[in-house]
Amino acid sequence: MKVAVVGATGLVGSKMLQVLTERNFPVTELIPVASEKSVGKEVTFKGKTWKVVNAATAIAMKPNVAIFSAGGGTSLEWAPKFAEAGITVIDNSSAWRMDPSKKLVVPEVNGDAITQDDKIIANPNCSTIQMVLVLKPLHEKYKIKRVVVSTYQSVTGTGVKAVTQLMNERQGISGEMAYAYPIDLNVIPQIDVFLDNGYTKEEMKMVNETKKIMRDDSILVTATTVRIPVMGGHSESVNIEFENEYDVKELRGLLEQTPGVIVVDDPSKAQYPMPKDAHDKDEVFVGRIRRDETQPKTVNMWIVADNLRKGAATNAVQIAEYLSGKNWL
Ligand code: 2RA
Which residues of this UniProt protein bind phosphate (predicted)? Predict the structure, then answer.
């Protein structure tokens, strides 16, 4: 299969190449795509080097699938051109996520929503993906009324520039800033821009994308998203109120049986998920599962995942695997 990776030289793009290799996706030809300033550079994949091309050249090379991770502007401009040429696009930007004519997919949750006619498929936001994977079995069993989530997000979610800012600060080097404030020894309660309602775009992504992926607008979500000086993954403190009564042991058992979810939850041994353990793993880790004693039918938990993997590259490659399994590529 010919696979184009648009934004191949970025953080998520490089992770995409790693995940395609690890999961043995049947790539016979890689088409790395990047902006004009990277055209002609070489990318190593499966022991071979592949020349970076621009988007127009990539379309002419007729890949079976194009995985985009190059920002919303590039996706808005180029995804429709790939799709018109009959190339299926899996898009990691926010450009198409809330477009009612596009599917927003976490394969384990709503892979069945995809049809052969879907030519642009949106990959959700990282912080939403790891949360809905855990919410899905709980909603099916207990019906979720309301979710209150606070995130602790890794600098890798911002990109290379933010990782460099953190590393520079650690070494006392002054350099380009990805954030308006220092991130080392700090916490920034702003991810993306503020909207008129006082929430950030990242927070509203968690609200709106959750409803769309779970195919249930009745689920209430309120979010506070925060950047912390961490690299391995995003963490989330999640409070979930159900319509129906639940049992903690049964709920834990449900999550233990959920594909893609690993329960790490043994307070007696100080066992709980942490970004340093989730780093470079494809699964979503959940722990600190405990009853909210202030309110009936409500549970608290802690969810951690590598935002560049299940939160981005792995989920996109899983969508490609789903399409390939159906012979739709
Ligand atoms: C972040 N959610 O962590 C973004 C990345 N898509 O900033």
Answer: 97
